[in-house]
């Protein structure tokens, strides 16, 4: 059963991440209309990931100092402001009344820095509540898995909605996204009340650092898992086009169907399978990572759309299990008063992979199309080794009972 305290957080994560994903189908054509290069668009995404990575630990500490409600409202306020600014800048840029360099700089300020910093608060808050409102390892894994499922569902709903709206107008998703965030902010203001789920003032636990011996192997596992995804997610369109010799429209359709199916599998695993299994986090890691390894091995040799889609389906299954284990594992080595900090570090770890992954994936693809897939394979093999040999991974179950 979902704890009552977690439900508003799940709704918040789902709505804001869906609002973000509304923009996904229009970013590439919009960048062309704004006379931005592919590199500049990549920088917009990379800087946003950097802002999220830097802001996440800060939000984690803020949870312990100012409480859940203020963190949520602050994050939503920044996210709404960032998306509003993005829409305004894009509209002015399309009118041709602003030089392209200024448009680019303002896009970095609004969509990347302000929005990236704001959206970081939401999964940090959700993971902290999931951790502090549960007591057993099974409950913790189930709750954190639901947070992941909410994010995964946004990857299905957002692009589908954005694509449909873009048929009417390229700007319509940009206008709707901040409106959704504003309405959500009003709802949070009315429904989320103190006391917060963060640690009470004056009762903060010992400060946790990423290089803590109990923590860094778990964060390294998560980094490797998300890095593997980032490496292949960005090159899947090129891979489908080059291997299957498809045109732009055929490629977009094939990639869209494959990623949509994989997204549904990911949501089903994190939101349904993981809670039903009630496996310990270590078992989720050790069972999920080998499936991900098999998926990358298949993708490396796949020469048909069916095999490529199957490999992404397997990847969604494997990562759905393993990521649920990773998300819960660090929370099991921390005291209740440290859960905000832990959530910040977990979210920062995920964000860091999206700084490195897309840039590295495209660079490796230019050398050889199979190299980013082999690099992803190496990343998940590293994660599996850590899951088997790291004392930190082996002791998560024991820590949960302390």
From TrEMBL:
Signal peptide: none annotated. GO terms for molecular function: transmembrane transporter activity. It is found in: Cell membrane. The keyword Membrane applies. Residues 5-394 form the Major facilitator superfamily (MFS) profile domain. Its main location: membrane. The chain crosses the membrane at residues 42-63, 70-92, 104-131, 143-168, 174-194, 215-240, 252-277, 289-308, 314-333, 345-365, 371-389. It is a multi-pass membrane protein. This is MFS transporter. It comes from Nonomuraea turkmeniaca. The lineage of its organism: Bacteria, Bacillati, Actinomycetota, Actinomycetes, Streptosporangiales.
């Amino acid at each position: 059963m979902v704890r009552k305290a977690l439900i508003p957080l799940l709704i918040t994560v789902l709505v804001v991440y869906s609002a973000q994903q509304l923009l996904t189908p229009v970013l590439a054509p919009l960048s062309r209309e704004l006379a931005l290069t592919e590199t500049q668009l990549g920088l917009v995404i990379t800087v946003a990931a950097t802002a999220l990575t830097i802001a996440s630990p800060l939000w984690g500490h803020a949870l312990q100092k100012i409480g859940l409600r203020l963190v949520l409202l602050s994050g939503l306020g920044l996210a709404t402001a960032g998306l509003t600014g993005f829409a305004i800048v894009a509209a002015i840029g399309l009118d041709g009344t602003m030089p392209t360099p200024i448009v680019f700089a303002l896009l970095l300020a609004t969509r990347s820095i302000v929005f990236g910093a704001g959206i970081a608060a939401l999964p940090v808050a959700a993971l902290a509540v999931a951790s502090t409102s549960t007591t057993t390892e099974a409950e913790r894994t189930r709750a954190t898995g639901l947070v992941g499922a909410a994010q995964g569902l946004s990857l299905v709903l957002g692009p589908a909605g954005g694509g449909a709206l873009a048929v009417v107008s390229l700007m319509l998703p940009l206008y709707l996204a901040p409106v959704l965030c504003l309405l959500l902010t009003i709802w949070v203001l009315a429904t989320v009340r103190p006391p917060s789920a963060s640690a009470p003032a004056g009762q903060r636990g010992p400060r946790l650092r990423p290089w803590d011996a109990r923590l860094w192997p778990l964060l390294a596992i998560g980094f490797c898992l998300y890095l593997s995804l980032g490496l292949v997610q960005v090159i899947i369109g090129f891979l489908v086009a080059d291997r299957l010799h498809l045109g732009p429209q055929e490629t977009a359709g094939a990639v869209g169907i494959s990623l949509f199916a994989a997204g549904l599998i990911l949501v089903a695993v994190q939101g349904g399978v993981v809670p039903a299994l009630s496996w310990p986090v270590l078992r989720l890691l050790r069972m999920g990572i080998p499936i991900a390894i098999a998926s990358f091995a298949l993708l490396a040799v796949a020469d048909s759309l069916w095999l490529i889609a199957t490999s992404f389906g397997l990847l969604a299954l494997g990562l759905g299990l393993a990521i649920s284990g990773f998300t819960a594992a660090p929370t099991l080595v921390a005291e209740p008063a440290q859960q905000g900090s832990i959530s910040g570090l977990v979210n920062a770890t995920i964000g860091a992979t999206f700084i490195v992954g897309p840039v590295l994936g495209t660079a490796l693809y230019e050398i050889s199309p199979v190299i980013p897939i082999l690099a992803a394979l190496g990343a998940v093999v590293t994660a599996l080794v850590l899951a088997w040999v790291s004392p930190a991974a082996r002791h998560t179950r024991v820590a949960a009972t302390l």
